[in-house]
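[Meeting: bench + compute handoff]

Bench side (C.D.) handed over the final construct sequence. Compute side (W.E.) agreed to return the predicted structure before the next meeting so the bench team could plan truncations. Sequence as handed over:
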Amino acid sequence: MNRKNFSFDREKRDFLIFLVKTTGAIWLSRFFPLSFVSGCSNQQTSNQQIKVSYELFPQSVASGDVSLNSAIIWTRTNNDPSPLVWQIAEDQNFEKILIQDVVTPSADTDFCVKIKTQNLQPGKRYYYRFIKDNLSSPVGTFKTIPENPDRIKFAFVSCQDYSNGFYSAWYHLSQEKDIDFVVHLGDYIYETVGEPTFQYAQMRKIELNEKGVALYLNDYRKLYKIYRSDRYLQMAHEKFPFYIIWDDHEFANDSFQSGSPDNGKDVFGGMEQRRRRLEASRAWWEYMPADIFFDPKEEDPQKQIKIYRSFNFGSLAKLILTDERLYRSPHPCGEGSIGQRYVALCENMEKTSMLGDEQLNWFLEELSKEEAKDIMWKVHGNEVCISRMLLGKDSFLNLDQWDGYSGERRKILNYIAQNKTKVRNYLVITGDLHTFVAGNLYDDFDSPKENVGVEFAGTSITSSNLGSLLRIDEKTLEEIENKLLEFNKNMVYFNSHYHGYATCEITRDEAIIEFWRVSSIEEPEVEKTQKFLVKKFRVRQGENKIEDITPKT
């Protein structure tokens, strides 16, 4: 045997020994005789010897972007570059391992690893984990999409400012028994750690940098590491697959393209802000279990990453996720606060774009293309409220929402009205506002002729809403909310004094949406908190109207 062949065989043998020590010889024996690894089967590590290590896997595991036959699985090691074995099994005890392979974490991705598992069976539950020697990550689970389900039920969430409270909503959501998946609609992290305009209190302090604002890649990475260290958020990720998009705070407040008016002003509009956008997007890609395009060498933020995408659930539903930050125009009335972004009105609202031309064309095609025409429900995962929100007769509550991009909104809603044989049951789920909202959508809010869809916005996990910021009694707050409903007959519900999450159950006959609140986000022992049903709504197939079916108490 020459030296070259000996070296190759030794490297292969060492690799196999590593696999056997880590995961046992069951899988390897399908491809190699155990004699090849010379007695290594005696070193096989049993499941009883494998211990879960949060020290090695401090952010636990996550799965996402599940399809009929694939899913993304994710973990991160604690700065450990050692090879890991990842496993997919039919059972929680990993006695029936279906797939396993090796992946090596790298400092280049902050030791995050993402695997796209393929060749899975539709509608089947799987379990996954990552292993180094006898140390394992926690076990995660997901279920692939059935070929043609008659029912799906999911939760939708957003806005989880870590510093502003404790994750009681994540705890209660993780205890749900019949949820298929979670749709996260953005603001997974907050780039600031004490901004008084939208952060009530530093209940859980984060030491970031001297400015208290994420400006560099390591700042954003640090935030993700801290957020993902919360055990209750981890529990939800371990139990459910996620479909995730971002909103503004994954980069900067009220952001558009590569700009933000509220922090980083010293580099606003310059190359440093562009660099910051690239690095914020990179950190999001590293930490999210999302099956998306990303080019780490690209220097144009709009070409570096693409997060808008869609998923089919047979002929029952289509989930369409859009990106309403990376391509949008600047705010129509200017970048100041009162009178420009908030409580404002100007003519430029007709000329702005939320999605950008390419994404807008893609979105309209996803709604109505030929193979999608028989899909019953079109569910739009949407970052900012599409419902109109007037504040009196001559101003809008918030022009960072679709009200500031009303020309493009009208184009979309008119398109749905004109293609109603293809685009049936347009149901929008929304985050951002930290408020429970239910609203009917019309072809034209100024002179409505017909209902073309419905919108439901979930409140925040912890981020400040009117109740948190104003700290006034509930009765006075309800009077303010009712006044807003008077100005906006399209909205049927507006509640900005609770924190929690929402669920949506879709069948071929109806969609049932429930708003759930938690008793406290200030109680550090979150398992002592309670959850309560706030509202329950129904949308009947083919009607595009919201019915309040909340049980009487």
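W.E. noted at the follow-up: The first strand starts at residue 51 and ends at 52. C.D. will use this when planning the next construct.
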